[in-house]
Amino acid sequence: MAKQFDVIVIGAGPGGYIAAIRAAQLGLAVACVDAWTNAAGKPAPGGTCTNVGCIPSKALLQSSEHYEQLNHHFAEHGITAKGVSLDLATLIGRKDTVVKQNNEGILYLFKKNKVSFFHGTGSLAAKTDFGWSVKVAGKTEEDLEGRHVIIATGSSPRELPGLPFDEELVLSNDGALRIPAVPKKLGIVGAGVIGLEMGSVWRRLGAEVTVLEAMPDFLGAVDRDVAKEAQKALVKQGLDIQTGVRIGEVKTSAKGVNVQYTDASGAEQKLAVNHLIVSIGRVPNTQGLGADVVGLKLDERGFVAVDEDCRSNLANVWAVGDVVRGPMLAHKAEEEGVAVAERIAGQHGHVNFDTIPWVIYTSPEVAWVGKTEQALKAEGRDYKAGSFPFMANGRARALGDTTGFVKILADAKTDEVLGVHIVGPMASELIAEAVTIMEFRGAAEDIARICHAHPTLSEAVKEAALAVDKRTLNL
Ligand code: FAD
Ligand code: NAI
């Protein structure tokens, strides 16, 4: 007899585990099935985000930033150290500990919320009188039945055609988080979020990093002013970023990886590196899910096809996170997970796709929400823009981190904030205020009238809002 649940969630990444917890909070009987196994052979819920994504990358960014500060920036504070050394094994080991703490945290939360966890691969097997039959294949086999199923199986790194990841020479985000020795030369294909974050980590630790990007523009989806400022800062730090390239033959040998490519001028180039990170986007995980068995519809790019409420073509089968359309971000997956759990419980779950923030955790950080200036121009929308540089912010000067600015775009007539773009220190934290204002459909003047503590970086947000009305106080 199959174990029966109100909701079976397949996948325990941020989309799945949060959906499971929210559904349990709402009084539903919930099972969550996840296949991730760590190096010790133990279940490791948390998905890409916890195991090989958000969390470990931020741990390495933090450690490598400490090293960078100590080597290059502490002296200006009058602090010097002799005999600075890097113990990479400890640095990577700390990252692994952080990951493990997060895995254990999720198992604890499942227990606390009475979510039944099953370690193994879940697949949709059949429609039943009760709802849906889900098979779990793993060390132990399980037959489950759910009235509702939430698919939250996430995504995997895309390979360059003919160049499979071996995680020793050709690295996905997984191998990029555990290179055993700092490489002399590191190549990266794709100057997207992973390329820039992982490129920053290994450059700070001492590698010579070359990033090869196909598109002519650097960070094409980002506001142009912000992208230019970020590119200037990253190049100054030593990242060799080449845009408009076409990757040709890539060969691996005992010594490393040889990449042939055509540069933006059309000239043939060669790059020899110890390792090559390929970070050219991700593909949805739908293999082995039983989509064909039960007739679950996938879209033309292989994502589970859903409407804006995350409903699939099958009754009571939902899908959230990276496996469906929209940005591949942990917080987007979480919001969808919560909204679906609430819809199942008869509530009105809602995700505002217009106010999902983006953050790139380089130094300076890049963060934005809403429309870019180029998008507003393309729409023919009348807007006002205001910017404020961190150079004119007292806290940024005290921190010794004055790169970048805050830029606010507001409707020309109503003053409603349409987009906020930040490049600079702690942009990841500052963007929350912009998201809040936009969620309440607030105006630039609203930000300008709010009392911001002094001295804080957030005063740059207030000043950018004042700049929309051409009345900055500190510039
Ligand atoms: P996932 O996290 O991919 O989880 C899916 C889970 O389902 C996995 O555990 C998988 O093993 C399991 N699974 C798959 N198929 C089955 C099956 N059939 N049965 C059982 N289990 C299955 N996003 C941010 O917002 N901020 C960041 O800073 C950030 N940094 C990132 C850094 C890197 C290097 C990478 C690669 C990604 C980063 N992301 C970041 C993106 C973020 O990790 C994803 O958007 C997020 O993990 C998606 O969540 P999800 O729940 O949809 O899927
Ligand atoms: P990405 O979409 O951010 O960037 C991929 C880059 O590779 C693009 O600039 C693209 O033009 C380029 N590219 C594609 N094909 C290429 C080719 N053949 N040759 C050269 N360049 C090529 O994807 P990425 O970096 O792999 O990350 C995947 C996703 O993970 C991100 O889109 C994001 O959703 C998520 N992520 C989020 C983070 C965050 O929120 N801080 C951090 C890391 C990842």
Q: What is the CATH class designation of the largest domain? A: Alpha Beta
Count of helical regions: 14
Inertia-based shape: globular
CATH superfamily of the largest domain: FAD/NAD(P)-binding domain
The second-level CATH architecture of the largest domain is 3-Layer(bba) Sandwich
Helix content: 25-40%
- Helix/strand-derived class? alpha/beta
In whole angstroms, how far apart are the ends?
Answer: 72 Å
Structure ligands = flavin-adenine dinucleotide, 1,4-dihydronicotinamide adenine dinucleotide
Low-confidence segments: none
CATH topology of the largest domain: FAD/NAD(P)-binding domain
Secondary structure tally: strands = 22
Rg computed from alpha carbons, rounded to a whole number of angstroms: 24 Å
| Major sheet summary line | 7 strands, mixed
Disulfide bonds: 49-54
Keywords: Cytoplasm, FAD, Flavoprotein, NAD, Nucleotide-binding, Oxidoreductase, Redox-active center
EC number: 1.8.1.4
Pfam families: Pyr_redox_2 (PF07992), Pyr_redox_dim (PF02852)
Summary keywords:
single chain, 475 residues, alpha/beta, FAD/NAD(P)-binding domain, Enolase-like, domain 1, 3 domains, 5-stranded parallel β-sheet, 14 helices, 22 strands, binds flavin-adenine dinucleotide, binds 1,4-dihydronicotinamide adenine dinucleotide, FAD/NAD-binding_dom, NAD, oxidoreductase, Lipoamide_DH, flavoprotein
